[in-house]
Amino acid sequence: MNSPNFSNGNLKLDQFLVCGLGYFGQHCVVALKEFAVNVLASSGDLS
Hints:
The chain has 47 residues and is α+β, with helices and mostly antiparallel strands. The chain has a domain at 17-47. 23% of the residues lie in helices and 34% in strands. The mean pLDDT is 84.
C-alpha cells in the first residue's frame, strides 16, 4: 500500500475509491476524473 502524499505539509488526496457503479457512482467517477485524480471503482458484485 502506498503512503499518503504530502504537498507543502498538507495531505494530498489524489486517489479515491468509488463503491457501487449505479447512477450516482458513475457520476462520481466522471466528476472525480475532471480533477485528474486516480479513481478505482467497484461494482460491488462479488459473484
